[in-house]
Amino acid sequence: MRKKALKAAFPHTLPVMAGYLFLGLGFGILLESKGFSFIWAFFMSIIIYAGSMQYAAIDLLAGGAGYLYTAMMTLIIQIRHLFYGLSLIEKYKTAGKRKVLLIHELTDETYSLVCSCDPPEDVDPNLFYLFISMLDHSYWVIGCTAGALLGSMVHFNTNGIDFVMTALFIVIFTNQWLEQKDHRPALIGVICSAVCLVLFGPDRFIIPAMVSIALILTVFRKSLEKEDTKHADS
């Protein structure tokens, strides 16, 4: 049963593997360039397992950021996972003890696969989703660790590597913009970020920007949901 579930899940994770290996390499190389060994990359990729937060954590670690600021940054950057989890309550309700691991393994890409991929009729859905999640995580761990090892053996200019996550989110934003008919949520995000950047500066704008985006989206949630439903029915 497990072998069948693994065989069914693996092909769906191939696009994630391609992305995670290269993103992980970038993270590992950048982390090593700041003086942290591959051991840090290995355990950070297992325990934190959050691409955007791990990239942010490099500067937080190197700059000696305080615990409170680090906790706030983590909460704000990863708070979207709260909404992911709420939408998967029904799908994971029969997962039993596996639920804890499924929650930890949840990322943007894994969430996308879990929502869009249906297991074959003869495969246990919980095992299918578990193997998708575990395979994705293994790709990330391998990529991060390999990047740190490579960085320790081959020294080169790392300028620009930290832009890899920015580039990824630009691609995701562009794709969402093209696929969605209602651009108001995206515009709210852009405007709030730009205003907070001007008001608070490049080093302090992230938290107020994310808070303001969350507040505005909450206030206008019903209106946005009605518009989304209208587009879905048309």
What can you tell me about this protein's structure?
The chain has 2 domains: 2-160, no CATH class; 180-234, no CATH class. The mean pLDDT is 84. With 234 residues, the chain is mainly alpha-helical. It is globular, with a radius of gyration of 19 Å. It is built from 12 helices and no strands.
* Coarse morphology: globular
Strand-residue proportion: under 5%
The number of distinct helices, counting runs of at least 4 residues, comes to: 12
Q: Compute the separation of the termini in Å.
A: 41 Å
Judged by helices, strands and strand pairing, the structural class is mainly alpha
Mean pLDDT: 84
Residue share in helix: over 70%
Largest sheet: none
- The tally of domains stands at 2
Low-confidence stretches: none
**E-strand count:** 0
The Rg value, from CA coordinates, equals 19 Å
Secondary-structure topology with pairs:
Layout: H1 2-33, H2 38-47, H3 51-63, H4 67-78, H5 80-87, H6 98-104, H7 108-116, H8 125-153, H9 164-179, H10 184-200, H11 206-219, H12 221-233
Helix pairs in contact: 1-3, 1-8, 2-8, 3-4, 4-11, 7-8, 10-11
Give a quick summary of the entry.
The chain is mainly alpha-helical. Helices cover 77% and strands 0% of the residues.
